[in-house]
Fold this protein.
Amino acid sequence: MKESTGLKFSCDNCHKNIDSANEYCKQCSQFLCPECLHMHNGWQPFLTHEVINVQELPVNAHKLLPLNRDRDINCNDHNQSLKVYCETCQELICRDCTLSQ
């Protein structure tokens, strides 16, 4: 298990559960509160998604996540949204970066 970041995250789905998101879906790139996680895990299209506890995120992951989640951060090399978390590099990368690495 990774060292805890000590940060609290709000649910990206319902936005009403402030600082209560305990889980993070890697495919959706969303922090989820217990209520939304239950709904997420019950939907057929999401059954193959990998959901991890926020305590398992790398210590520096909070630096990689957009501060304003409504606005995308673009890749410097490809000018595309950073949407994929690379476990090897421990950073957010774009779709084209996944093809070149």
